[in-house]
Input
Amino acid sequence: MADGTGQIKRHEDLRDLIEHFEALGELARVDGADWDLEVGAVAELTAQKDPGRGPAVLFDNIKGYPEGFRILSGAPNSFRRLATVLGLPMPDDEIALVRSYLERIRQGGADLIPPVEVSDGPILENILEGDDVDLFKFPVPKVHELDGNRYIGTDDMVVMRDPEDGHINLGTYRIAVHDKNTAGIWISPGKHGRFIREKYFKQGKPCPVLISCGQDPLLFLASHQEIRGGVSELDYAGGQRGRPFEVIPSKSHGLPIPANAEIVLEGTIHPGEEREEGPFGEFMGYYASEASMQPVVRIERIYHRNNPILTLAVPSRPPENFTFARSAVKSAMIWDEVEKAGLAGVTGVWCHEAGAGRLFNVIAIKQGYPGHAKQAGMLAANCRAGNYAGRWTITVDDDINPADINDVIWALSTRCDPVEDVDFIRRAWSTPLDPLLPKPPYESNRAVVDACKPWGRLNEFPITAEAGPELRRRVKEKWPELFA
Ligand SMILES: Cc1cc2nc3c(=O)[nH]c(=O)nc-3n(C[C@H](O)[C@H](O)[C@H](O)COP(=O)(O)O)c2cc1C
Ligand SMILES: [Mn+2]
Output
């Protein structure tokens, strides 16, 4: 929250943030909703109503559960809340937010800060073991009518240790509840978490995991972004925090538990142990993958704070209750990565929410040489942050706001020759969640679209018909109420 000097207030944990959101006027409280469909529907509808601006929703007195066992939806999913979570200045629009995240990365703000070990923290307030382990102790939602399971892990982070080099990986993977001490875990091909699990299985060993089901959104943001292999997302999140996260080694496996997390499950995935999981309404907005046999996690222990808060992401027809935040962070990561690959002249990047933050990405450049637009599109489509599950990558000129869909459609309509300016990338990294891909190996084709004015005609391209900057300024000053 801004403290009047434009500075954002720090937060220690999710609970501080809830106070900050309330002070911003961006927290809705819902009492008495049913975990069975109502919580999911409210989360989905509030996110769709006013994308990037709607409130976070805190559910309490959930049907059949004690007061205080809460669910929080959409924590970082608005301009102001995302800036608050990240500790960035309040932005005016999407690209301002992307720019300030990028500035932080450029100034070393994404340097990795490893966690520090501590011996105590709120997460140890309750420890359930043996017969006391019961995943139904929490108001685990069933979010859509056709879902095959209740999901305790949606806005979650799954912690694993690479058995070869020991580095810690975080990933957001959906976690189903099968029974009181068995969870299902669905990790798609190509994810680090899946490689790590396979390494344990190849050695004939079970794979230890921690599953945090409620935590600081900084951890969620790092956990669900495609951060390069070998880098611990926990260190990345520490870099964004500007100081290390405090972690407590877990009792069975010594994995790092964030000391301020809300609910953390500890367990193991045993080779060959599977149960039917799904279907689940997914992030591109479909039930693209059917129920299938998936690995299970035997839950050995549950750690939770008093009055725990489960964090909730509802994958659905977009915009979802997490896409705004993902779009903003991913846009900055793509911008950073294309520059590191040598691209100059970038003026903006936006991964549109309607494309679920992955399928419709736009990069704006000030064209500097022939082929520049093509290079921008190809790099944005293929860098680590932009590669997974893409479909459309569109390059526009610097007079186009890449986050403004009207601007983008105008550029596509008037500067792009569909026969000449569309290239294809075939068989790229995608996912079974892509509704266009019916079977393995789930490789997708992409279009890289050059919607910039043709380089060879840049100087003679027809002039844009619009009020000039001076005239605009004068008119806005004269009739401010019209343009507030
Ligand atoms: C709300 C949400 C749910 C997600 N669910 C899954 C999932 O169930 N399985 C999966 O493989 N990836 C899922 N992802 C994407 C991964 O978290 C993301 O690709 C991440 O970078 C994976 O980390 P890793 O490469 O370190 O394994 C989800 C992302 C979000 C935002
Ligand atoms: Mn990773």
Observations:
- The first helix runs from residue 14 to 24.
- The first strand starts at residue 27 and ends at 31.
- The chain has a mean pLDDT of 95.
- The pocket of flavin mononucleotide (ligand 1) is lined by residues 154, 169, 171-174, 186-188, 191-193, 224-226, 313, 315, 322, 326 (CB under 6 Å).
